[in-house]
Amino acid sequence: MQFSDFSSPAFFDNPYPLYEKIRAAGPILQVAPNMFVTGRFEIIDAVLRDSRMGKSYLQSVAARYGADATAQPVFQSLSRTLLMMNPPAHTRLRALLMKTFNARGIEKLTAIVEATTHELLERVGSRAEFDLVSDYAFPLPVQIICRLLDVPVADAIALGGAASQLAAAFDLAPLDETGLRAADEGALMLERYFHGVIEQRRAQPGDDLISAMLSVEDEGSRLTDEEVVSNAVLLFFAGHETTSNMIGNMMLALFRHPQQMEALKGDPKLLPRAIAECMRYDNSVQLLARTALEDVTLGDASLARGSVVFLLIGSANRDPAAFPAPDTLDFARGANTPSLSFGAGIHYCLGARLAALELDVAMRSLLARFPEIRPVDLDGLVWHRRNNLRGVTSLRVHTR
Q1: Could you give the 3-state DSSP secondary structure of residue 103?
Q2: Fewest CB within 10 angstroms: 108, 170, 260, 278, which?
Q3: What crossing angle do the helices spanning 225-238 and 177-203 adopt, rounded to 10°?
Q4: Rg (CA), the chain
């Protein structure tokens, strides 16, 4: 097993055969010195909840790119986000960000999500054919996060492109020089942009997440400007591609399982179950990573302090030890299916509530507006060349 196994065209098109081999080969497999992968649900679930397994982001960067690379803008930017921190720094920052999110009640979030969804579907109008990705799934979450941050929706395309460049740095396989340069440019562009937004909000606070981050306080602690910028960037890219790709993946799963599609159309109350099952079946987030903060024994495997373990979430969600007939899309599993689609433990997805709301409104509205929706072609799909995030670049559909 080596990094190149996760960057082949066959893997990008369909990673599940490789995941099956990885699960069968053992609980934890080595891919490089002090670097391992695991695809088993039981182990990944345990690692995500184990306080001895934390974050050492720059160490994993050094292992893949060399020590000098840790100074590059994209890696420095990501290292300052909540996503890459351990307690107590993580505990403090998450408490502040949770207060920020909770300040916007579910009613406010729902109103923004529904209004944005309606606008995008109105633009599609009565067209007989459109691209579900570029016309709907891609702009929907990016416009929602723009509205939550109160930045111009007109900036969404540029910001979304920069977020995509930055997010590529999460890939398990190292980026080439061109990809790394693009990731640096994306990180710098987003940081410059949000530093400018902070200056505006200090002069004129509003009813938005950035204003809330600047004012929120928890037991006398407040966010610094750098923390606000880094986590505004995190909110932007984490809430952008994950949801847009999941909308596409869910529609593909339904197109390929027409009986489930018809069942969902016939009973919209099935939607929460359908979303949970589609996220288990083919989630947009495929990969997480943890570092052993001390010597750790996981099952029969011993990990030395500093070992980095890449957790194949996509594999865990298809593990037959956790799910009967895991390669079958089955809405009977229920909305509380114990998948790892939003992670687990102290790093459980901060935006899970918003993501679930976006998926619910997006899918409910799309199927109600276009009950006869069907794919133009399922044979010529092009998947993103990413091993941490799964989705197609385009999905053309007929509406009637």
Answers
A1: helix
A2: 108
A3: 120
A4: 21
Token pair for residue 138? 């891609």
If pLDDT is split at 50, 70 and 90, which confidence band does 120 have? Answer: very high
Phi-psi region of 299 (alpha: psi -120 to 50; beta: other; left: phi over 0): left
Tell me the pLDDT tens digit for each residue of 193-239. 999 999 999 899 988 888 888 888 877 888 888 888 888 888 877 77
How many other CB atoms sit within 10 Å of the CB of residue 92?
17
- HSE at residue 324, side-chain half, CA atoms within 13 A, is 4
In this predicted model, what pLDDT tens digit does every residue of 293-346 receive, in sequence order?
999 987 777 899 989 899 999 999 999 999 999 999 999 886 667 789 888 988
Fold of 3-398: Cytochrome p450 (1.10.630)
Alpha-carbon distance 138 to 150, whole Å? 19
Q: What is the DSSP string of 241-298?
A: HHHHHHHHHHHHHHHH-HHHHHHHHH-GGGHHHHHHHHHHHS-SB-EEEEEESS-EEE
Ordered by start, the domain boundaries in the chain are: 3-398
Contact yes or no for 286/313 (Cβ under 8 A): yes
Whole-prediction pTM value? 0.89
